[in-house]
Amino acid sequence: MMQTSLPSTDRIAVIVVNYGTAELSIAAVESVLAGDHSRCAVEVHLLDNASPGNAAARIQTAHAEKGWGEHVRLWLEAENHGFGRGNNVVLHALAKDGSPPDKVFLLNPDARLHNEAVDILAHALEANPEAGAAGAAVLREDLSPAIAAFRFPGAKSELARLLSFGPFDRLVARHLVALPPDQPAGPVDWVSGAAVMFRFEAVAKIGFFDPGFFLYYEEVDLMRRLQDSGWHTLYVPEAQVVHVEGAATGQFAAKETRKPDPWYLYQSWAHYFRRAYGRGRALSLALALWPAACFNLVHRGLRGKAPSIPKRFFSDHWRYVVWPLIRGK
């Protein structure tokens, strides 16, 4: 990628939101501080989301022992805000500052920089004035590529997710959410929230993260609203981070036997689709997922395979998605 010089005054705020992963969050901060940021001013904000146990104390100890000083500001919260609202605590404070940053880089607590990703993403935004966000490539711990670029979800992709049926996947391949791990650099609908940089003025104008999300879909919604505001999102595979999959959320991409999905994943699904498509279309899609899930049970059972839908799908989907959409809440 051709790099342009960053403005000498370019200021980048890095935000890491921790919940129960203190050691990984400390490593994430250390990976940022170890970078060569000679052409920009980087500040780190480490927020603890009321983690259980002694996580907050461990972070405070690391701040002192590692001599982070004014380079890292700690935010020790008394309640768990979730991912988007946790970031919003810092984002709103920065917006009220007389001199807010030019860019903000969100780094998952279970991710760490593999190269000079902060500078690479900043250069990508400088080279593309129409871009409001830029996301890094995500590597697994063995350095194999993970999926980090995506299409916005819609009816066809959601039906494919519940059906889990190869012929249907091939039929709607151009509508599936995940783009290939070797996706080339360029505009995409959205990128992984594990390592994404935003132009601060762009996200400030749309109000940062929607506080209606606790966890999941909040970054999809944010980048959808950016697109609606005229900005686009770049995937920049030259920038790389290593991600310890599932450490922060407890959810893993590939599991033979899935646990029940958490309530907030269902609520976030309903909130996203209602915001993106309206309550009527969101409810119609939610109801269409039931026969798709039934087909999943049948076709996988006939092949001697366990269902790939979450446990308790029907009861949880009714409780947290269908009934609230019917009631308009």
SSE layout and pairing:
Elements: E1 11-18, H1 22-33, E2 41-48, H2 55-65, E3 72-76, H3 83-96, E4 103-107, E5 111-113, H4 117-127, E6 131-139, E7 149-150, H5 155-163, H6 166-171, E8 186-188, E9 190-191, E10 195-199, H7 200-205, H8 218-228, E11 232-243, H9 263-277, H10 279-302, H11 313-327
Parallel strand pairs: 1-2, 1-4, 2-3, 6-11
Antiparallel strand pairs: 4-10, 5-11, 6-10, 7-9, 8-11
Helix pairs in contact: 1-2, 5-10, 8-9, 9-10, 9-11, 10-11
Report mean pLDDT, rounded to a whole number.
93
- The gross shape turns out to be globular
Find the CATH superfamily of the largest domain.
Spore Coat Polysaccharide Biosynthesis Protein SpsA, Chain A
Biggest sheet architecture:
9 strands, mixed
The total beta strand count reads: 11
Strand content: 15-25%
- N-to-C order of helices and strands: EHEHEHEEHEEHHEEEHHEHHH
Number of domains: 2
Looking at the overall shape, the CATH architecture of the largest domain is: Alpha-Beta Complex
In terms of structural class, how would the helical and strand content be classed? alpha/beta
- CATH level-3 fold name of the largest domain: Spore Coat Polysaccharide Biosynthesis Protein SpsA, Chain A
Helicity, as a percent range: 40-55%
Treating each run of at least 4 consecutive H or I residues as one helix, how many helices? 11
Q: Gap between N and C termini, in Å? A: 46 Å
Query: What is the gyration radius calculated from CA atoms?
Result: 20 Å
Unreliably modeled segments? 1-5
Q: Which CATH class of the largest domain applies here?
A: Alpha Beta
